[in-house]
Amino acid sequence: MFVVLMTGEEGLELVFLGTGAALTLPSFFCTCATCEDARKNPENRRTRSAVALLGKEITLIDVGPDIEHQMEREGIRTVDNIFVTHWHYDHIGGLLGLGEPVSISKWGIINLYGTEDVTERIEREYGWLKNWFNLHTIKVGDTIQISDASWKVVKTNHTQHSVGFVVNARTKFAYLVDGIVPPPETVNELMGLDLLITEGTMDFLDEEWHNFKLDDAVAFWRQTGIPECILTHVSCHGWENEKLVAGMTPDERSDYVSDHLGLKIAYDGMRISL
Ligand SMILES: [Zn+2]
Ligand SMILES: [Zn+2]
Ligand SMILES: [Zn+2]
After folding, report:
1. Residues by chain with Cβ below 5 Å of ion ligand 3
2. For 13-273, which CATH superfamily applies?
3. Residue 240 Cα, ligand 2 centroid: separation in angstroms?
4. Do the beta carbons of residue 105 and residue 76 sit within 8 Å?
5. What is the pTM of this model?
6. How far is the CA of 239 from the centre of ligand 1 (A)?
7. What spacing in Å lies between the alpha carbon of 104 and ligand 3's midpoint?
8. How many CA atoms lie within 13 A of 92 on its CB side?
9. Residue 197: beta bridge partners?
C-alpha cells in the first residue's frame, strides 16, 4: 500500500490514554517507594501506554488491557482506526474489549492496521474479531492516508516485527514505542519532525534491554535534532541486579525534566494540540 503524502489542514488533539510500561503503576505486587507514592497520589498512577488522536476520525495507537477504562476516563465514545505497534500484551491486550462494543453499538467496523505478525495472529487466535475489525496488513515503508493525517510505517528496535509511525499532519511527529535506537532508515525519516514521542521504560538499568533507560532515550532524541520530545511507556522504576527497584522520586523526575529543555514526560490524561 502506498499513498501520496498529504498534510492535514485541521488541528488534532493527542490524548495520552496511558503512559506506563508493561506493568501498571502502582504494581499490585510491589511495595517499593515509587509504588507506595502512586498509591497515595493517584495523579502519579500509570496505565499501559496508548494514545488517541482526535480529529475527524478517532484513531488509537495500541490497545492495551486498560483501554476500556482509559476510553471511559477520557470520554471517548467511538473508535474509527487502530494502529498496532507490536504483539505484546501491554499493546494488544484490550482488543477483545473493543470488539463487543462494535457489535452492540452503532459504530462502523474499526480499521485495524498491523504488520503481518499482528493480523495473522488476530486471524488465528481471535478469528471472530474479523466481524468487527477490518484488518489491514501493513509493512515497513508503507504510507497510509486517513482523513486526518498520513502515517508512515517505520521499523523500531524492540521485537523482530515491531514498528512505529511517522505521522504527517499539521504537526509532524513520530511515535516510537517501544524500542531503543531504531535502524538508520528510521532515523532518516525523523529529520525535520516537530515532535518525537518515544519511550523511557526504566529510570536506570544495569544491563542491555530492547527498552530505553531515560538517559539513553534523551541521548537518542538529542541526536535526531527534533526540538521537542515526550517520553511515555515509563515504569518509574529502575532495574538493578535483576530486580525491579524504586525509581526517581517525583521531585527528582521533575528536576530531570527541567534540566532538559524541550523534554516532557507524559502522564495519563495529558492532552496536546497538534
Ligand atoms: Zn510495551
Ligand atoms: Zn514498585
Ligand atoms: Zn513491547
Report:
1. 88, 178
2. Ribonuclease Z/Hydroxyacylglutathione hydrolase-like (3.60.15.10)
3. 13
4. no
5. 0.95
6. 16
7. 31
8. 20
9. 175, 230
Contacts of 86 (CB under 8 A, 6+ apart): 92, 115, 117, 118, 156, 158, 159, 161, 162, 163, 178
> Are 175 and 167 contacting, i.e. CB atoms less than 8 angstroms apart?
yes
Centre of ligand 3 to C-alpha 106, Å, is 32
Q: Which residue carries 518525537 as its cell?
A: 196
Q: Which protein residues have a CB closer than 5 Å to ligand 1 (ion)?
A: 90, 178
- Tell me if 20 sits within 8 A of 30, measured CB to CB: no
The number of the ligand nearest the C-alpha atom of 199 reads: 1
Domain boundaries, the chain: 13-273
What secondary structure letter does DSSP report for 173?
E
Distance of alpha carbon 70 from alpha carbon 76, whole angstroms: 9
d(CA 96, CA 196): 30
pLDDT in tens, 222-270: 999 999 999 999 999 999 999 999 999 999 999 999 999 999 999 999 9
Q: Read off the pLDDT of residues 32-91 as tens digits, 9 standing for 90 and up.
A: 999 999 999 999 999 999 999 999 999 999 999 999 999 999 999 999 999 999 999 999
Q: Rounded distance, CA 216 to CA 203, Å? A: 10
> What distance in angstroms lies between residue 34's CA and the mean position of ligand 2's atoms?
5
